[in-house]
Amino acid sequence: MINEFKAFIAKGNVVDLAVGIIIGAAFTAIVNSLVADLINPIIGVITGGIDFSNLFINLGSTEYTSLAAAREAGAPVFAYGSFITAVINFMIIAWVVFLLVKAVNKLKDATARKEAAEAAAAPAGPSELDVLLEIRDALKR
C-alpha cells in the first residue's frame, strides 16, 4: 500500500497539479493587488468615486442608513450594490488576466519562432538512410 502511495505521489500529473495550485495562489495575490491598488483607484478617479457597494433595498420595516448598519442589525436586505461591485471587479480581473496570458503567449511564440529558426539554420546531420548505407558498405569490406 505504501509503495502504491509513493507511485501515486511520484506521478508527474500530481506534482504538476500541486505546483499549479501553488503558483495559482501566488498569481491570484498579484492580480488582486494590481486590480485593487493600481486599476481601481484610476477607475475611481475617472468615475468620480462612485461606490456601488452600499446600494441595497431594505426588505424589513426598519430604516437603515447604510448596508453595514442593516447587516449589523440582522435586517433582511437585497444588497444589489455588492453584486454590481463583484461583477465589475470580476470583469477587471478577467481583463487583467487576459492581458497577462496574451503577453505570456506572445513571449512563448517568439521563443518558439527563435528556436525553430535556430533549428532550421543548424547544419543537418546524415539521415538514417545515409547511416545505414555507410554501415552496409563498411560490412561489405
Structural class: mainly alpha
Rg to the nearest angstrom? Answer: 30 Å
Strand content: under 5%
Strand order, sheet with most strands: 1-2
Number of separate structural domains: 2
Low-confidence stretches: none
How many helical elements?
Answer: 5
Major sheet size, sense and barrel closure:
2 strands, antiparallel
Which series of helices and strands comes N to C?
A: HHEHEHH
Looking at how many chains there are and whether they match, the oligomeric state comes to single chain
User: How many extended strands?
Assistant: 2
How many angstroms separate the termini?
58 Å
> What is the percent of helical residues?
over 70%
Overall form: elongated
Mean pLDDT: 85
Description:
The protein has helices at 2-10, 12-47, 67-73, 80-121, 128-140; strands spanning 57-58, 77-78. The chain is mostly helical. It has two domains: 1-49; 51-124, no CATH class. Strands 1-2 form a two-stranded antiparallel sheet. Helix 2 (12-47) crosses helix 4. It is elongated. The mean pLDDT is 85.
What is the compact description of this entry?
The protein has 141 residues and is an all-alpha fold.
SSE layout and pairing:
Elements (H helix, E strand, L loop, with lengths): L1 H9 L1 H36 L9 E2 L8 H7 L3 E2 L1 H42 L6 H13 L1
Antiparallel strand pairs: 1-2
Helix pairs in contact: 2-4
Key attributes of the depicted protein:
single chain, about 140 residues, mainly alpha, 2 domains, two-stranded antiparallel sheet, 5 helices, 2 strands, about 75% helix, elongated
